[in-house]
Every structure is written in C-alpha cells, then in structure tokens.
Amino acid sequence: MERFWLNLRNIQQSIVTESESFPGKMLGPASENVVMSNSMLDLLVEYYLATYEILEFQKPFREGHENSRIISVKMKQFGRCRISLETFRSNMSARHVKNSYVLAKFITQDGSVDCYPRQVQFFFSHKVDLLDGELEHNLAFIR
Questions:
Q1: DSSP 111
Q2: pLDDT tens, 114-138?
Q3: Dist. CA 69–CA 81, nearest whole Å
Q4: Cα-Cα-Cα-Cα dihedral of 21, 23, 29, 30, to 10°?
Q5: Annotated domain spans of the chain
Q6: Host H or E run for residue 86
C-alpha cells in the first residue's frame, strides 16, 4: 500500500523490475481465448521487452533473435478487477462505464511527468514463457 501511494505522489521515485504477484482477482464479465489485434500484440511485445530487459520477445511468424520468446496471441479478457476491497471497472462492464476512467502518469525522456485522463477498455490476463517457466500477467488495456 505504501508503494502504491508513493507511485501516486511521485512516479519518478517508483522502481519497477520484472513483475510482482497480483494481490487481486479478475472479475466478469469474462471471455476466454480472445485473439489480440496486431497493434495490441505490438504493445505487448514492447511491454515484455521493457519489463524483462535480458530477454527477447516477438510476435508469432516474425523474424527475430533465435532465442526470442514467441508471445501467445490469446488472452483472457475481464470487465472488472478487484484489489483488496476496491473494484475497478472498465468500458467492457457496460453498466459502469463512468467508473472506468483513470489518470495515467508517464515519465517522458526529459524526466518530466505527463498525466492523461484515460479510460480502461478492459482488463486481461496473458501468459508468457520465461526462463523459469510460464508466468501469468494481469494487465489493463487503457485507451
């Protein structure tokens, strides 16, 4: 909780390395085996490359490094996500569209922080093969 508040106040001091355990639960409405769009696959490859700096990732049927991990084109899609006692909603959860907005913070190349009000389109879980086995990531797709 302390780290969450630190990120909220000053994102430049937050340290993110690899992944951390997910303390919440994904909630319906849900869809299994959803095929991602090409542009979403590009974003996911970029995310994995930034998260796991020592590994190589690529989309299926693309030329790349011989040790590249091929990411799956399928995901599980969810309309809501619960962390502790708070439930976060997305655009996919039609009755709660007005509760799906977030303030996204990004650090620019010059070190300044830009904030953008955006809408969570959906939450999703995606599995990827790493050095020590398969790991599931729980993420949000924000437009």
A1: S
A2: 888 888 999 999 999 988 889 999 9
A3: 28
A4: 20
A5: 22-142
A6: strand 86-89
